[in-house]
Amino acid sequence: MYICVCNAVTDRQIRAVVAAGASSLDEVSMELGVATCCGCCREAAQQVIHDVACGGNCATCVRREVTVS
After folding, report:
1. 3 Cβ contact list (under 8 Å, min separation 6)
2. What are the pLDDT digits (tens) for 33-50?
3. pTM score of the predicted model
4. pLDDT at 27 > cutoff 80
């Protein structure tokens, strides 16, 4: 799914960059250009980064799964 329409960046691209070692939106932005134009994708990009970094095991993710289910 496209996260950043301005720069045509997908969630898969973000996940790959984080898996390769990026750990912040700044690092992902430098690599892919995400959130460098209009900024509308900033929150969604940060969520993807968080999801990859924690693996869905943090309290925030567990609460989100319980709320969504």
Report:
1. 9, 10, 11, 14, 34, 41, 44, 45, 48
2. 999 999 999 999 999 999
3. 0.82
4. yes
Backbone angles phi, psi at 36, to 5 degrees: -105, -5
CATH topology of domain 2-68: Arc Repressor Mutant, subunit A (1.10.10)
Nearest to 17 by CA among 62, 35, 61, 59: 35
Domain ranges of the chain: 2-68
Alpha carbon distance 66, 69 (integer Å): 5
* Whole-number Å distance between alpha carbons of 19 and 21: 5
